[in-house]
Specification:
The chain is an alpha+beta fold. 28% of the residues lie in helices and 19% in strands. It contains 3 helices and 5 strands; from the N terminus they run αβββαββα. It has a 5-stranded antiparallel sheet with strand order 1-2-3-5-4, covered by helices on one side. It starts with a helix and ends with a helix. Bound molecules: adenosine monophosphate. The site of adenosine monophosphate has 11 residues, from loops.
């Protein structure tokens, strides 16, 4: 299988606007931002999904996402951020190489997720909760 677009960025084969780099990850600006400043924390090792990534790297990436959040608030004066991982193709993950989106949000910016919420039938939520306990 060929390299992911993020491997090509990490290897310097295609350009990006990089705002951070360390041993485990890089942070770049998304080429098609939901809001300008939308950043991606990308694992240097191309774990395809969140599920495949070892704990140490994941913790480091979350800590890095927190630093990105701080920087976006400081520089852009955003009021909040969406921090999200699309985990697998079915969830909308386009690039099979683990990355965390950090999206600046502004009060009243009108952005919204396209999710449609559902309702549980009587007792269904509790039954499911019972199966999912760990
Ligand atoms: P996902 O759907 O979670 O896999 O998100 C992939 C993200 O990568 C999308 O938001 C794309 O806009 C972004 N992306 C794709 N190619 C590039 C690139 N060359 N430079 C920066 N961001 C990119």
């Amino acid at each position: 299988m060929g390299k992911t677009v993020f491997e090509r960025i990490i290897d310097g084969e295609i350009p990006s606007v990089k705002i951070h780099e360390d041993d485990l990850c890089i942070v770049i600006l998304d080429i098609a931002p939901v809001e300008k400043g939308h950043a991606l924390v990308i694992a240097k090792t191309p774990y395809p999904t969140f599920t495949d990534c070892p704990e140490t790297t994941l913790s480091h990436m979350m800590e890095t996402a927190k630093q990105v959040d701080r920087k976006l608030r400081e520089v852009l004066h955003c009021d909040g951020t969406n921090i999200l991982i699309n985990n697998g193709k079915a969830s909308g993950q386009e690039v099979p190489h683990l990355h965390i989106h950090v999206i600046p949000r502004f009060t009243g910016d009108g952005q919204q997720f396209g999710f449609t919420k559902q309702q549980y039938a009587e007792g269904e939520q509790a039954r499911l909760g019972g199966k999912l306990e760990f």
